[in-house]
Design goal:
About 30% of the residues lie in helices and about 30% in strands. The protein has about 280 residues and is α+β, with helices and mostly antiparallel strands. The chain folds into two domains: about 160 residues, no CATH class; about 90 residues, no CATH class. The chain has a ten-stranded antiparallel β-sheet with strand order 1-2-3-4-5-6-7-8-9-10. The longest helix has 15 residues. The protein is globular, with a radius of gyration of 20 Å.
């Protein structure tokens, strides 16, 4: 993964911009975060009571041992603008999260998950920077940056009412892929054949997915071990409204015609670039 070493180096170093918080601050931030997302059932129907503490550097830490399932070892987060948010309700400008030894679904392997959120109110965007899912033992994983539009929130209430209006403007990153990662992510590449890809992309132009990108997909499905670099931009942004109907059409398709039409609509206004490098990483 071409960015992974740099990302881990950034995370290992000191971060001076984030607020130094007390345990009370950390607990209040987390509780407000959970309440704000509750209407969208991101945590399911119920969210267990969570104890959050501040460490010696003023970052917030959740010990995974407090949960019966122990879904992770530790969750750490830092927030820039936390004090202003707690006092005045103004949305923080950035936050950084790190989850160590994450138990990914039913896999016996553990992953580290890291990402940063940066709010750009002038552009009306939210940047998900260096979303990195990495498996420490074999170095497989994903590193991706995502730019989301429609994310200009001035209050938590604005966040609650605007999640459905978010739309992805750009995605860029790379993935170190091997059979173990594909299994953990429940991704089956067996159906990605030349014939099936031709059907799926029949109504998709070369300016959207080039021949080299199509060949990269086919080589990945055959080799299943290597590095995939990807870059996606959307003219109008990909949101729930733009994705829901084409996705439903693809899932429920009974004919090749319906599959082709669904993918054509799904990728309308999108430019997707892919490259594949077979081998170890």
């Amino acid at each position: 993964m071409k960015h992974l070493a740099l990302v881990l180096g950034i995370w290992a170093g000191p971060v001076l911009a984030y607020d130094t918080l007390t345990t009370r601050d950390c607990q209040t931030l987390w509780d407000r975060f959970v309440v704000g997302l509750r209407p969208h059932e991101i945590f399911g129907d119920t969210q267990p009571a969570t104890v959050v503490q501040a460490n010696d550097s003023g970052a917030c830490v959740i010990d995974g041992r407090q949960f019966d399932s122990q879904p992770f070892e530790t969750l750490r987060f830092q927030v820039d603008g936390a004090h202003v948010f707690l006092a005045e309700g103004i949305l923080p400008t950035s936050a950084q999260f790190a989850i160590e030894q994450l138990h990914w679904r039913g896999s016996e392997r553990r992953y580290d998950l890291r990402f940063a959120l940066n709010h750009d109110p002038a552009a009306g965007q939210l940047h998900l920077d260096h979303f990195t899912l990495s498996q420490p033992q074999d170095q497989s994983g994903v590193d991706v940056d995502i730019v989301v539009g429609g994310a200009y929130f001035s209050t938590l209430a604005g966040l609650q009412s605007s999640i459905g209006g978010l739309h992805v403007k750009a995605v860029a990153g790379s993935a170190n892929i091997n059979p173990a990662l594909l299994s953990d992510l429940e991704i089956d590449l067996s159906a990605l054949t030349r014939a099936n890809l031709a059907i799926a992309l029949r109504d998709v132009g070369q300016d959207t997915v080039s021949t080299s990108s199509r060949n990269a997909l086919l080589e990945m499905s055959t080799m299943k071990r290597g590095t995939l670099d990807f870059d996606l931009t959307s003219e109008n942004g990909l949101g729930w409204i733009q994705l829901a109907l084409p996705y439903a059409q693809i899932v429920e398709a009974e004919t090749d015609e319906e599959i082709s039409t669904g993918f054509g609509r799904l990728l309308s206004g999108v430019e997707l670039g892919l490259s594949w490098d077979t081998g170890d990483f």
